[in-house]
């Protein structure tokens, strides 16, 4: 594999998230440089960035290794997302550009069409693109980078289980965009909060690393499930 030097960080991060490198495994500069077809300099810089993001840790006598997050840390990420995704949607309603709206509308049309047809293979990637575009529409580089990093780390630590209806999920995406188009920050915040709560309820840890964090993660999932059952979505009302 040969990739541009400036893309090394993204490539290593993607491989960590996809499980190419196991938690706790060593990341040697020489082997990484050989794998990606670059010198050791961009690899070294990428490892520093990934350490700052929490994907990599440096251990004495071992060097760079894939981080081993605790269940407590994983639960904290879901809680952060529950707070920040609605904030991003609210800001997007106030600061979005026509270019953002064009992309968001297009993604919603595509996602809703694929969901109705039962073509679910690429809905996850479309959903990621939707959320990243919405974050960029917030007009805050700090919030955007935080939300994108959260999504990467949650995707690394959790798998999504459950039977959420893709049509319903994309109806929620559409309702968020409707609010953003109207400049209704409170509506965008409320719909995104509900959407994020329901998404969190379907997440299950890929690993176990201590009872305390696991109990908290289970409590969070149960709490979201309770809220979900108490507030059924009525798709037409979302668009009101």
UniProtKB/TrEMBL annotation:
Basic and acidic residues bias spans: 215-230
Region annotation (Disordered) ranges: 211-240
Residue stretches of biased makeup (Polar residues): 231-240
Key words of the record: DNA-binding, Transcription, Transcription regulation
Domain HTH gntR-type, residue spans: 2-69
Alphabetized PANTHER family for the sequence: GLUCONATE OPERON TRANSCRIPTIONAL REPRESSOR, TRANSCRIPTIONAL REGULATOR, GNTR FAMILY
Name of the protein in question: GntR family transcriptional regulator
């Amino acid at each position: 594999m040969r990739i541009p030097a400036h893309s090394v960080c993204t490539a290593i991060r993607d491989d960590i998230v996809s499980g190419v490198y196991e938690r706790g495994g060593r990341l040697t500069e020489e082997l990484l440089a050989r794998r990606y077809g670059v010198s050791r300099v961009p690899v070294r810089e990428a490892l520093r960035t990934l350490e700052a993001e929490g994907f990599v840790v440096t251990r004495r006598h071992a060097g760079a290794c894939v981080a081993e997050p605790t269940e407590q840390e994983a639960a904290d990420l879901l809680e952060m997302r529950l707070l920040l995704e609605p904030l991003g949607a609210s800001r997007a309603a106030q600061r979005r550009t026509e270019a953002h709206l064009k992309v968001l509308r297009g993604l919603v049309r595509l996602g809703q069409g694929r969901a109705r047809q039962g073509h679910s293979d690429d809905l996850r990637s479309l959903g990621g693109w939707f959320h990243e575009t919405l974050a960029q529409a917030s007009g805050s580089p700090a919030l955007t980078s935080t939300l994108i990093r959260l999504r990467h780390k949650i995707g690394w630590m959790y798998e999504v289980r459950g039977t959420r209806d893709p049509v319903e999920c994309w109806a929620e995406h559409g309702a968020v965009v409707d609010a953003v188009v109207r400049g209704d920050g409170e509506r965008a915040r409320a719909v995104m909060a509900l959407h994020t709560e329901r998404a969190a309820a379907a997440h299950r840890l890929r690993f176990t690393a201590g009872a305390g964090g696991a109990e908290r993660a289970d409590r969070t999932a149960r709490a979201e499930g309770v809220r979900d059952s108490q507030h059924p979505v009525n798709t037409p009302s979302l668009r009101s």
